[in-house]
Amino acid sequence: MRLPVLADQEGKWRLTSSLTQVRFGLEIMTAASRRTALVVVDVQNDFADPKGSLYVQGASGVVEAVNRLVESASGRGWPVFYTQDWHPETTPHFAKDGGIWPVHCVGGSSGAAFHPDLVVEGVSVKKGGAGEDGYSGFTMRDLVEGRDRPTELDSLLRQEQITSVVVVGLALDYCVKDTALDAVRLGYEVEVPLSATAAVNLSPDDGERAIATLRAAGVSVTG
Ligand SMILES: [Zn+2]
């Protein structure tokens, strides 16, 4: 497109000024229509401390990477939300009660506390407190009734007009994956940066399979 030739300085100024207004307006619209939050999943001692009951290999590097993202999120004015696995002492989620996992993240225990190095700058959503399976930060499954129940995460994000989430933390093949998939289902744009997560890999290729599932669902899986 050829811009009209303007005869005088005043005309040139008017054109520049209106183009600047258009560009500025578009930037505001983009910012307003796409507001992002960082969701930090389950960076708790039982998963992130080598002495934890369900330690995820590579979790120490994850804590550092997550902290860098929390700092950059705060710098950009993005809200940060956290989730915590939060189980009662007896739940069909645990192997001793018929489930598959060793006892972990019992509410109030040191294993359920955030890793001491984690930078915490936002509210935490606790999942599983009534004995449910709580892989996703958005939903908990009642193991007796087989029904899903929402946590407060979706409404917290909507209160902040969030349309896009970056999901990080532990573990890639369980809670990060399920949180990201639920976020897509709920209409969010979702990114999972692999540098800020790690897989349990009960089977050696679980992490790879999780990445394929996330990509197929429309999640942007980045480096
Ligand atoms: Zn759990």
How would you describe what is shown here?
- The structure is a single chain.
- The relative contact order is 0.15.
- Mean pLDDT is 89; it is low at 1-7.
- The chain has a single domain (34-222), classed as 3-Layer(aba) Sandwich (Rossmann fold), CATH 3.40.50.850.
- The chain has helices at residues 9-33, 45-48, 59-76, 153-159, 172-185, 206-216; strands at 36-41, 80-85, 124-127, 139-142, 147-150, 164-170, 189-193, 197-198, 220-222.
- It is an alpha/beta fold.
- The structure holds zinc ion (ZN).
- Zinc ion binds next to loops.
Features:
223 residues, alpha/beta, Rossmann fold, two-stranded antiparallel ribbon, 6 helices, globular, binds zinc ion
* The CATH C-level class name: Alpha Beta
Quick one: CATH superfamily?
Answer: Isochorismatase-like
DSSP, total strands: 9
Strand residues, percent: 15-25%
* Radius of gyration, in angstroms, nearest whole number: 22 Å
Overall mean pLDDT stands at 89
In short:
The chain is α/β, with parallel strands linked by helices and about 220 residues long. The chain is about 35% helix and about 20% strand.
